[in-house]
Amino acid sequence: MAALAVMSATAPSRGPSSMIFHRRTALPLFLGLGAPALIGCELLVAVDRSKIDEPAAGSGGEAGENGEAGGGGGGGVPGAVCGDGAVGAPAEACDDGNRTAGDGCDPGCAIEPGFACAGSPSACTAGCGNGALGGAETCDDGGDEDGDCCSRACQVEPGCEVEPNDGFASAKDAFSIAPDGRIRAFIDPEGDVDVFSVTVPDGALGRLEAETLDGPLGTTCSSLGVDTYVTVVDGRLETIADHDDIDEGNYCSHLVLEKLSPGEYLVSVQISPAAEPATFDYTLSLTLDTSVCGDGALEGPELCDDGNTVGGDGCSAACELDTPLPEVEPNDTAAEADARAALRPNALVSGAIAPLGDVDVFAFEVPSVAEILLATFSPGSLSACVQGADTFLQLLDVDGATVLASDDDSGPEACSLIDASVAPWATQLQPGTYYVAVEEFSSDATIPGYNLLVVFTALCGDGVVEGAEACDGGEGCSAACARIQVCGDGVVDGAETCDDGDAESGDGCSAACELEGTLPEVEPNDAPEQATAGQATATGALFTASIDPQGEIDYFAVEVPGVADLDLETFDTSGPRSCRDVDTVMQLLSPEGAVMAEDDDGGEDACSRIQAAIPAPGTYLVRVEDYGSGYIGGYTLRARTTAVCGDGRVEGLEECDGGPACGPACQRIPVCGDGLIDDPEVCDDGNTGGGDGCDAACRLEGATAEIEPNATPAEADANGAVAPGALVSGAIEPEGDVDLFAVQLTTISDLRLETFDSSGPDRCAGGVDTALALLAADGATVLASDDDGGVGACSLIDSTTPGGAAARRLSPGTYYVSVRGFPELPGARYTLRVSLDASCGDGVREGAEECDGGALCDTRCERVAVCGDGLLDAPEGCDDGNAAGGDGCSAACQLEAVTAEIEPNDTPEEARASELVIAGDALVAASLAGGDRDVFPMRLPVASVVRLEVFDGTAAGCAGGIATTLRVRDAEGALVATDEGLSDAEVAGGIGGCSALVLALPAGDYDIEAASRDGGAAIPLYLLQAKILESAGAEGEPNGTIAEANGPIGSDVFIAGARTSDDFDVYAVDLPEGRSIRAEIVEGGAETCESLEIDSRLSLLDAEGALIADDDDGGRGRCSLVDGTGDAPRHPGAHALPAGTYFLRVRAASGASGSAALFEYRLAVTLR
Known about the structure:
The chain is mainly β and 1168 residues long. Among the domains are: 160-292, Jelly Rolls (Sandwich); 325-459, Jelly Rolls (Sandwich), CATH 2.60.120; 518-644, Jelly Rolls; 703-839, Jelly Rolls, CATH 2.60.120.380; 898-1030, Jelly Rolls; 1035-1168, Jelly Rolls (Sandwich). 2% of the residues lie in helices and 33% in strands. It has four helices and 60 strands.
């Protein structure tokens, strides 16, 4: 059984011959009607209030949900004193040691809007809700609502995934996130992958069940918008199980893995490969059951446990049966089996089918209601089935004749398996003696030997709920492990008309499980004027109704006593929490008949729910119909108030309830200094003081208002140029408005442009979505543009990034900045900031400047080229950073000690006949005629890492259309490596069309072949460089972050590393001014890049950890290469970099699996 590792799913995983393809389309969204649709939650909320406040300590209670009664007001936590600096949860959400408003923690110790607070005493930082993570925030989704996994205080809510978790290295422990194993998570953005870690403890065996469910409640998978694919990998990152769809109508996933060994397992959730790109929320339900072999307690998945871990005594060291009971002939019938002692599962039996036609029958005892697993294997095994063993297995009832279940070859190979999880007749076996019959499938052959395993997969009375058991022991559980029907258990049984999970009345379902206060519809009620009337109350009015005849529409008149939050929800005839065979569509209409909100299936399953803010007392209409204009035999509509303005309790969607700053509709009365931005405020920092960026009138300090009209360059010029460093406030209105601003540069500069919302820098609230463009002096030519590269949906043109390269080195003159909005968001108010990343002449070298001041810096902040400065400039052939000769580069910056090839050298034999042998660092000058090849012998006295590279005559570039191929062969002529055809690059080589190979080679003799690519044109002159790289030692763990990085490492060196787990290896490189990086992954052990057993990914990060260059398979095989050398480098982000410390990060490729994801390597680095 050790290798059985049974994987079961509600439906079989698709194999190559049984793949099912669905045409998936995006589900329609309800748009308009003044109400946003919340995807996944599927809850339609119509509300014009922007803020929901938590009640302070001692406030009134909150309304109940899903049929539960609302709670009474709380008096706070004993000992919790607001303002003492100690957070007394749950009454206090924060406590910063004072009772001052506007500092993030209000006088009632509730977190103020727009702030995030952490610690005790609390430290609060502004910016919560701007979509950018910072300060005390652990998340920021750009909103200000709870219940979406990111709270209004910008903290990840309990039970929710914690990003980043997109790969194995960033996986979070599942049961630390959610101790109950139910994790709320999001596939967002499209292509997102969520990975969670589960660990089976040392000395234990595990059973893992993983299931995805839809929506925030995670009870079913009723939404086809949730389409997951779940994979489980082990500690070696090898996939051990995966599952796509449960069935054709259920796109969620379900996996069960048995007998997991100790160690870490990673559960990965992503969108199904068969689905169209989409985003959705889901619940991942994980159950991990573990057992410790040798503790004397029989726990699944153990087959036995005799209190030790010694084998040979009937129970192995792995708690598997290891000493089978031999069959005793004759046992061809049930009667003969009865003459032997009945087996007491769990049991292992050995037998043989001989002679032809033999049948072996075994009796086994079932002491209580049980589920059974019967399986055949080869002798001495619980996993294998050798060729020639073709069994047929039958489970016989207590009469010894009735066949309850049978199987031919559901086990391994041709062996048999009867499993209660897929064979219903093997479940709920009543106490008694049953029989199992084993025979050869066709009765035309013998079977020399077999093992028969008889195991209880569930046994009522053992205290463990398994299989189809509803319970096992305790109150409410029968002797057959079935639930005893009790009012209040949450399941509608028998005469019950409802069951909301409690035994309390006053919540719509009485203590006797009967619907309370029901109002039957009065027909006809097919029109508004015929509506059945009732009054919304805190406990809820329940209307009982039906859609009959087919296509009927029901109207209900609901009286709302005042400004309130109204909660409308449909159920089946059992009332709250139940929705069987009901699929409604519901609308809420104003007293005048206007549609206020609409919902299809935002309630339980396919039932409907609307939550709306009612602005005034009156009679509102509710319209209900069947989704497909069909028939509904019966349904229930509940109308309740979850908040009533004026009762002094801040509940539901209310912003306040009472007090001088609270309006009659329980909405705030905007006041400058209350910490919330309201028209016409452009900022509000919670106080009315000045000098802090927001003045006493809630206007940005130092910001200039745009001057309209400003849609053309001429108008922008007339309004005056915006000075670098300035803030400009503007608005995109009317719809289609374009704002143009002139910017005057007085010196060569690098320009930075960014937008924010009206409150100023570092914020971009919802409703602001800009598009930014930098225009040339003609006011028309676009030099650079950006949509949402800044904070949230705001824009950023950053001269330090590749996308902002056109904003570098701008000559003095007038330029224009264009700000646009989107038609979907008219009237957006924004702030534009214009600043300089570099200004030539200020004496500070910044941005793209090569220098700023000094004898060797010109007026454009560009270097004056000088031999010996370490940078290669025409007509230099080399520049090694000094003016000395004799070191390979002369005092005039020309190459020294170049060796000429010796012709003929077209074959290895000709090459070896010459005296030219590369035995270390070398530079060889050669030429190639059309179709020619040059062979150069190379002798390595010791194992070495060698860089072989082709250049033009400067030994630094590849001008003149040179296109070469390099091959390295061993002494026997076998190909070791080539730069052709082994990677995703056309040639895994050097600069331009020139070749390069970096190899780890054993000591020995080799031949280097150079040829024109594809036998092409002649090359009058090229240089072949051989460079032996020096060892920089081996990596030191931990080195998974830039803070832990190894190094710094130098140039023309290599460092040895190994990926023995799914981690990152990070190395520091100190780069002189203007240098470029060439870094490559090569083999570090027995596996070569060409073997495809190394599947790496190499990234170059700047000093802040930002990614500036990245490569997957650009090197040999699946090895990686980041190359910023040459005039047109493969990776521009690695080219001509400013001086500083950079970081190289090594990891496995995202698609790597198995041994290819765990490898030894060398990282070879050259700086030029």
